Amino acid sequence: MPETCTRIINLRYKDGSVGSASNPDTFNNQRFEQLKQSSLRRGTLFVDSTFPPDGNSLGNIPDLQQWQKQQVKWCRPAEIKKLMGLGENPSFIVNGASRSDFGQGLIGNCWFLAAIGSLTLHKELLVQVVPCEQSFEEYAGIFHFRFSWFGRWVDVVIDDFLPMMRNELLSVRSKSANEFWVPLLEKAYAKLCGSYADMHAGNPTEAFKDFSGGVFMNYELRNQHDHDHDEELWGSLSRATDCKSMIGCGTFPANGAAANTLAVTGLVDWHAYAVTGVCEVKKHGKPVRLVRLLNPWGYQEWNGKWSDNSYLWNQVSSEDRKNCVKREDGEFWMELEDFCHNFSYLSICCENPNFMDGDLTCQWKLMSYNGRWIAGKTAGGSFNERTFHMNPQYRIKVKAVENKGNNNLMLSLMKKPVENRRNSSQNAIGFSVFKVIY
Fold it and tell me: How do 9-10 and 365-366 pair as beta strands?
């Protein structure tokens, strides 16, 4: 069995064509190399006119008062280091990209940062999203990142002005004050969304999809929690980690309030986390299933069973005890049952659906179709509406694959935004599957 999954064959954008992973399309018609060389020839630093360092790019960030917004200052990395009293030259990546490199700032985008934490575990995807040859040598004040934007890979160019307030980064903060790949990646995604404010609130699957161009599955946790559910979930988690999937999850809001309050368990309410590993340890000879999670704040951890300081780690072998790293870095272990009880959902995303059945040898094919719901023509409404038949329809023929199990087809539906991410309409969408009898 191969160590890595086979990729989906994308029949819409074949390798090398514009929009494929190897040849991303330009975003806003900006070509990175062309803009960089132009800045170097002129001896000036690049300023992005399509996402300028001003209030429009910042947007109306919730909980940021107008007087605070007026205090925001946009600075390049060298000036940021100077304001912080640090003398070294800025670096793009220091000693490799890691999930421990950053902590969340004042932007409510824990879902995005949890996805970055998961992305760092998958180096092939990471170098696709973050071109790692970038540096502050041959410096022109310009960087670029790549995303799969609704099925089409795009290259997003930015300048390196970052928002500061009271001499600290307003957005995500690198734990090493000398490293800037995460704040710059966040800025590129903010540009894609429309503004920093447009990144407020979301689900890790949104970023997973944009980091991989892959497919995802969501699993309910507490509301579905029973023995059979846990068996199926553990199988999915184990296969997902073997298939190098990105995995995220989220907690419940406290008393229905959409706020990041701190629970007595040490978990943050209404908050996204990354799942960074699973393992099975032996306690008194009996197996215990554990899930490792990462809080994108970069601190604040679960304080229950199997937490960093739990006595239970003294009841396992020295080899199993190595899984526990006692430091305040936002990463911790939980037993599967506690995980299911304290989290509302789990999301798994991979370049292909191999995590569903664990078959790493099967080569999936991808077909992508575009359509529109047009009022009076193709917007037929729900199944209960008399006009349901007007909705876009597609006929799919699936041939059974011998000895490959029953998972031969996976359907996914995406709605492209017509405005900025946060202002896009939130109308419910879905599809119905019918068997055609010849």
Answer: parallel
Domain carrying residue 86: 9-201
What distance in Å separates the CA atoms of residue 435 and residue 437, rounded to the nearest whole number? 6
* Whether residues 24 and 172 fall in one domain: yes
Give me the active site residues, please.
Answer: 110, 271, 295
Per the DSSP assignment, residues forming a β-bridge with 154 are 25, 147
3-state secondary structure of 55: helix
Query: CB neighbours of 131 closer than 8 A, spacing ≥ 6?
Result: 144, 145, 146
* Top mean-pLDDT range of 14-23, 124-133, 215-224: 124-133
Domain boundary among 350, 384, 419: 350
CA 329 from chain center: how many Å? 19
Find the length of the chain: 438
One domain for residues 47 and 13: yes
d(CA 288, CA 278): 11
Residue 287 bridge partners (DSSP): 282
Report how far residue 302's alpha carbon sits from residue 332's, in angstroms, rounded to the nearest whole number.
7
Mean pLDDT, range 87-102, rounded to an integer: 89
State how far the Cα of 70 lies from the Cα of 60, in Å rounded to an integer.
12
122: how many CB neighbours lie within 10 A of its CB?
Answer: 19
Mean pLDDT of 25-37: 97
Alpha-carbon distance of 220 to 226, in angstroms, equals: 11
More confident residue, 199 or 258: 199
pLDDT-derived band of residue 428, with 50, 70 and 90 as boundaries?
confident
For 372-398, b/e burial (b = at least 16 CB within 10 A) is eeeeeeeebeeeeeeeeebbeeeeeee
What is the spatial distance between Cα 104 and Cα 252, in angstroms, rounded to a whole number? Answer: 19
What CATH number does residue 252 fall under? 3.90.70.10
Read off the pLDDT band of 397 (50, 70, 90). Answer: confident
Determine, yes or no, domain membership for 244.
yes
Beta-strand ranges (E) seen in 150-305 are 152-159, 162-165, 168-169, 173-174, 215-220, 246-251, 272-283, 286-294
Helix, strand, or coil (residue 247): strand
pTM for the model: 0.89
Task: Name the nearest CA neighbour of 259 among 62, 75, 70.
Answer: 62
- C-alpha to C-alpha distance for 108 and 438, rounded to whole angstroms: 52
**pLDDT for 354 beyond 70:** yes
For residues 128-157, average pLDDT: 94
